[in-house]
Amino acid sequence: MYRALLALLLLIGPHFASAADLSLKPVKVADGVYAVIGDLGGQAYENDGLNANLGFVVGSDGVLVINTGPSARVAAALHRAVRVITDRPVKWVVNTSSQNHYWHGNAYFQKHGVQLYASREAVRVMRELGPGQLDDNRNRLKERAAATDLAYPANQIDKTGTIALGGQVAELRYFGPAHTPGDLVVWLPRSGVLLSGDIVYVDRMLAIIPIGSTASWIETFDAAMALSPKVIVPGHGNTTDIAKANRETRDYLVLLRESARKAVDNLVDLNDFVNKLDQSQFRHLANFDELARRNANMTYVEMMKEAF
Q1: With helix as H, strand as E and coil as C, how does 80-115 read?
Q2: Is pLDDT at 252 greater than 60 in this prediction?
Q3: How far apart are CA 17 and CA 302, in angstroms?
Q4: Helix (H, G, I), strand (E, B) or coil at 281
Q5: How do the residues of the chain divide into helix, strand and coil, expressed in percent and rounded to 5?
Q6: How far apart are CA 134 and CA 170, in angstroms?
Q7: How far apart are CA 249 and CA 214, in angstroms?
Q8: What are the chain's domains?
């Protein structure tokens, strides 16, 4: 009996080890600026739903966290990662988007007295979609979603805002809808770092979703790049520069829109358009097979609405 119990414990031991406290590894982007790079795949139990980028900025007066992850568990891991770098308190959180992996850790930080910021449009979408997002996350992450509650930012940005961190100023810029209606960027002029949220995707294919706008996305992208950042922390993928951001975000959006516009103008059937659109120049991006056809479909439908 003892041997059987020991064998069972050895068998299930790795499962419990994998469910232990999550450890995140920040990457230094510039002095006092760090990024946590999420998984390039989809949200899953195995990656804790963390497939988007988080970050934090250390000022003399405190720490600004950019995005809190999809759960209280991830938020707590991010907090521990901050404490490894500095003993200064986290005082501010900015959510760059209304998607779950950017803000479902808010309640964890709110309990620590942190001020929450997002664009007004993002908060509107959070309130509309948040409960459903939380249900989905609980189904996906199971016990790893424990203690995760919704906390909506009280500080809402219409166009611009600033947070003085002490020795560093974070500028919050809302340029308009993009991947979602409320995508916000955090601009650090002293270090030339742009934390772009989902306005920029690299290394993985971007996703066109019903609540976004490809037309406005291109305009928003151009406005963000006009800041001339030295380093970009994208919403998904590794830290990058303007050239790569153009190739893997803007160029792809332009291909989709220009191709879909021609198809709609010439009354090309939707299925024919999706089947024949050549997206091969973006095949190197992660998730190409899962997203390419869907993106073509979504863009065609959007262009139809614009045309009629």
Answers
A1: HHHHHHCCCCEEEEECCCCCHHHHCCHHHHHCCCCE
A2: yes
A3: 46
A4: helix
A5: 45, 20, 35
A6: 29
A7: 11
A8: 22-307 (3.60.15.10)
